[in-house]
Structures are given as structure tokens and as C-alpha cells.
Amino acid sequence: MPLKTILKTTLLKIFHLFDLPHRTARAMKKPKSNPLERPAYIEFGAESVNPSPARPEIPPNQQQLKVEASRKGRKGKTVTVVSGFQSSATTLEALTKQLKNQCGAGGALKDNTIEVQGDHREKVRQFLIELGYKAKLSGG
Fold it and tell me: How do the domains of the chain map onto residue ranges?
């Protein structure tokens, strides 16, 4: 009788003796716990580990925005970057969607800056000025 089948039958007998449900070796691994539930984090409060500060909503006419075209770290592809926002995440997400639709291009919201694929500096600046933002072109 091969060793593999001997081990398998022995394990099944042990499971049966202790009335344990039969599970494979992968299923028997200990489930991963949330690191914030460990005693060290609970003691100091989980909120202090990952704070999410609330941003005050500043009107568009009081925000100074920079619109620039960048190629750094993007394998030579040009991206229009809009920075200087002081708005909530939901406002920025909605504005990102509007800018992408206006330019007919893809883009993303990263670290309170909006990136639109391609060189759309003038379109983006004009659109932001129409919305009431103070936008300036930056860079070459």
C-alpha cells in the first residue's frame, strides 16, 4: 500500500475519532484575521491607526489650481495633471468624471490630483474656469 493512501486513511480515522469534519489541508489553515483587531491596535484605538481627516469644502472661486502636462513616470505618454484641490473626495470624483467626458479621454483621481490622459491643458483650463475655479497653466 502506498504511503500516501496510508496517511490519508490515518487522517480520516483521526478526524472520525475526534468527530472533526473532513477538510483538505488547504482548508485547515488558520483564517487570516484583520490586523486592526489585534490587541495592540485595539488598546490604542483603531481610529488612530488609519485616520481619515474631513476636508472643509472651499468654494471653487477660492481654490488656486495648476493645470500642467506631464510625462514623467508614464513611459513617454502625456497626461494632463490638475492639482491644488481643496475639496471632498465625492466632489473630486464628480469633477474627474466631468473632465474626462469633456476631453473625451480616460483619466483618474490620484492623491487629490486629477489626471486626464493626453495633452488637454487648454480644454481643462477653460472648463475649470467655466465652473468658477481659478486655474492657471503651469510648465512648458
Answer: 3-48, 60-137
